[in-house]
Amino acid sequence: MPSTTTDTSxxxxxxxxxxxxxxxxxxxGNEWYEGAQxxxxxxxxxxxxxxxxxxxxxxxxxxxDPTTVTAxxxxxxxxxxxxxxxxxxxxxxxxxxxxxxxYNTNQQVADSAGTASAMLTGVKTKxxxxxxxxxxxVGDCQGALDNPVMTAGELAKQAGMAVGVVSTARLTHATPxxxxxxxxxxxWESDADLPEGAEGCTxxxxxxxxxxxxxxxxxxxxxxxxxxxxxxxxxxxxENRTGRRTDGRDLTAEWEAQGGTFVWNxxxxxxxxxxxxxxxxxxxxxYDADRxxxxxxxxxxxxxTAIHLLSADEDGFFLMVEGGRVDHAHHGGNxxxxxxxxxxxxxxxxxALAMVDxxxxxxxxxxxxxHTMTFAGYPKRGNPxxxxxxxxxxxxxxxxxxxxxxxxxxxxxxxYANGPGAVLIGHDEDEHFERPEVSDExxxxxxxxxxxxxxxxxxxxxxxxxxxxxxxxxxxxFDGTVEQNYIFHVIDFALGLNQRAEAASAE
Length: 507
Description:
This protein has 15 helices and 19 strands. The chain has helices at 31-44, 66-79, 112-121, 141-146, 152-158, 174-180, 204-209, 251-257, 266-270, 299-310, 325-331, 335-355, 440-443, 486-495, 497-506; strands at residues 55-61, 96-101, 162-170, 219-223, 261-263, 276-279, 317-323, 361-366, 370-371, 373-375, 390-392, 398-402, 414-419, 426-427, 432-433, 452-455, 461-462, 466-471, 481-483. α3 (112-121) packs parallel to α6, α10 (299-310) runs parallel beside α12 (335-355) and α11 runs antiparallel to α12 (335-355). Belongs to the alkaline phosphatase family.
């Protein structure tokens, strides 16, 4: 009599589970199926690097949320002659991913000071404060003095490592400042910014020069010359500009008196050695789309110089690199410059990946917070990322005419939920307000401000999670959705910062 027992065993599959099965004949030659199989092969070959790191590079693109990443990927691909969607950015090749929750302790939608402080110190704090714990209040000098939190930069120097900070923003701006300073207010960038009653607190620029650990910061490259020079001193590049300091101190001269080199242009950076302070603009550096390639180094140039100089330390290095102006372009409602600076940031990551070995260097790429840029409208494959929406016909073939919005007018693929490009829709007794026409040529212009829903002199940050991309020793610890301050803890674990700093102080 035949058995009635049901066979519940699993079907036979690959014994090793380390190689994908053969491609079925029914899908042979299908580029999507075969491409996914190649991705599966690559992922099956990945193995965690579970050993201490010698070096860590933390890349932060200010304001680079997932929508910005996707739009920049397509924009970059189209600049290379591709349709764009199939492109892959350099940092997207890193093998490990996580999502980072960006809120501050007092704000649902964060600012850069609180978020960068979380990544550099391991604790979340209020918006507007630099490497100070949540126990202090914004603007409270004594509270900041009583509640500083050690930064990864400080711990690395105590551990005997080299430390560098690079940014296209002012070096005294919120994100780079969290590497080396503590402040009750992110706006206290020079002594001219300190309010009455802030006795005992020092400005952020001064703290870079007087960094008290080890032999000081080794490499600092970015903008913000004005905060390091007295107001009586002429700027070396712009004849009508002077410094901002009211205390008469020339911090660039003080840096040189400590044995360092100060440079202010691309040529100076190319020949610099030893401990280097590079300040390439009185305020923020130029957007990459506006940069003079002869006079101002790119973020990639600065990253390469920093890695070259810091690598001379046999004890390893910690480097923070910020693409600071992605955020500024978003605030201006200007997607063109935001995407260009995101691509320039990716170029810097590519430069770093070509210079370091992921067997001993942990590379982390993330953002501090998001923005309100939207990506919508059913544009056809390969539609210009900055253009108006041209969709597909009913049969799926590409159209040639802009797809109209409900008001019958074209609209762009990228827009903002709020900001200076806002359009007033309504009427009063005298005038009816309509959304302006936008041509594809206008939309793709460098200075175009994307249309926005809610008016505002500046577009705001967004509260969405941002992505963490990572490769190298202990990078596999980035997994799932994590609090933003967790990033510091992986860095600390990978380098043994606290342990090494404590051991050094005990000697």
